[in-house]
Amino acid sequence: MLSCRSLVYMVGDFSLNGFSLELKKGDYCALLGPSGSGKTVILELIAGLRSLKKGSVVINGVDYTHTPPQQRPVGILFQDYALFPHMTVYENIAWPLKIRKIHKAEMVESVAGLAEELDIARLLERMPGSLSGGEKQRVALARTLVIHPLVLLLDEPLSALDAPLRDSSIALLGKLSKKGITILHVTHDPFEISSLANRSIFIGPGF
Fold it and tell me: Where are the domains of the chain?
């Protein structure tokens, strides 16, 4: 499903030297390592937010190495959720569909269905600044899932949540994994997703 082949990337004093990864459909892989080891960089390379110096990113047999981010079957959820503060919850979730020029009726249906599934339908007219941490996370996850990605990239999405919210979020991620989405989850805490991950990879500085 997801094949990263000998990824090479350099910026400033940081270098990623020949990172490779093979994940099957439905795999839930924990990507572990200390700060500065390049975990987030790897996610951004897979998503197309950074350009590789060498190597390739293949998803479901298709080479996406030089494909723009918005044309990749990949969703990425950052630690700070990166919601647009000037947009409503509905507008945030709909944004990936809007830039893909999806018909308005289809957009409304997709957003409504996903909001219902994630229990945030009541929030659609709210602004991000009025949401709790758990609500922001679900909105950001909805925005990530609305394009029906084959691969879901998670950059420590649980680290800012308190224990009850973390538990409910883990349960939600478990449901997504069972649907067959391939997930690569960056975390500092291997116990955080021990009940979810069937794979784990550790990287260190200068990998």
Answer: 1-73+150-207, 84-148
Strand order in the sheet with 28-32: 74-77, 151-155, 182-187, 28-32, 199-202
CA distance 207 to 197: 22
H/E run at residue 167: helix 163-178
For residues 56-75, average pLDDT: 96
Q: What is the mean pLDDT of the chain?
A: 92
Partner residues linked to 63 by β-bridges: 58
State the maximum Cα–Cα separation within the chain, in Å, rounded to a whole number. Answer: 48
CB-based burial, 172-186: b 16+ in 10 Å, e otherwise: bbeebbeeebbbbbb
**Fold classification of 1-73+150-207 (topology level):** Rossmann fold (3.40.50)
- pLDDT tens-digit readout, 89-104: 999 999 999 998 999 9
Report the amino acid identity of residue 87.
M
DSSP string, 91-160: HHHHHHHHHTT--HHHHHHHHHHHHHHTT-GGGTTS-GGGS-HHHHHHHHHHHHHTT--SEEEEESTTTT
